[in-house]
Amino acid sequence: MLLPAxxxxxxxxxxxxxxxxxxxxxxxxxxxxxxxxxxxxxxxxGKSTVHLGAAARxxxxxxxTLDHHRGSEENQPGWQWHDTSLVDAHTGRLETLPSLRRxxxxxxxxxIVSVLVATTQQVASWWxxxxxxxxxxxxxxxxxxxxxYAAFSPHLLPGGLLAVHDVFPDPADGGRPxxxxxxxxxxxxxxxxxxxxxxxxxxxxxHVGLEPGSPAWTLLLAISGHPGLSSAELAALxxxxxxxxxxxxxxxxxxxxxxxxRSDCWTRTSSGAREVARLRS
Length: 281
Known about the structure:
Blueprint (H helix, E strand, L loop, with lengths): L6 H7 L6 H11 L6 E5 L5 H13 L2 E6 L29 H11 L5 E5 L2 H5 L6 E6 L5 H11 L3 E9 L12 H11 L3 E6 L2 E5 L11 H10 L6 H8 L8 H13 L5 H16 L1
Helix pairs in contact: 1-3, 2-3, 6-7, 8-10, 8-11
């Protein structure tokens, strides 16, 4: 699917390292993700952010894009991808945040994209929000690439998408850390669902279903305060279609997890679980 206007024009004019065909593949994949929170690791000037933000608007999702905006190793002076036009005269260091802000303004995505300026190490220590999509395109050293996968992929909801950029099976074509991340994810049960150029898209196993006795079912029963409701009754109560997997169930899982931390939720979840167990016995 083509990236619609004005996003296509803005993306084409934005500095970055995402080829057009890979950007479109990322956009297409993101359209299948759920209407929950998405996280992009590695922003640069926002080329991929435009693709993801455009898809997030269609999907009813919200995108957080995370970067320290000082550039990776290959963007530093003396390296191949150093751009002197992005150097901040005040600090003498690379600074891509102003470019990103202009990109989001031009694309009209300020309401869809939240900009997080920090390292992944800083954010990993406090991040707890479930994700429907995770795009890894940050620092490509082995240590940081593995850290980013280990820190954020556990937050993917069942059925959530993991996209990884700069994946090269042949070492002669590029660095190996993103390839190693993909191999690790496949070994941990992720399923590859798309690839284009150096982009790989994988899906976390499972889906947020509400089969009787499932964790999401139990949790929503507990939250509702009415354990033992049928699917139709729970649908009427929550406004969600709980009879099939899909976007409504992904939203239900997010609602459940976000409400789980409320003060009396632990007690209600426990009682709901006992009631479901009783009904199934």
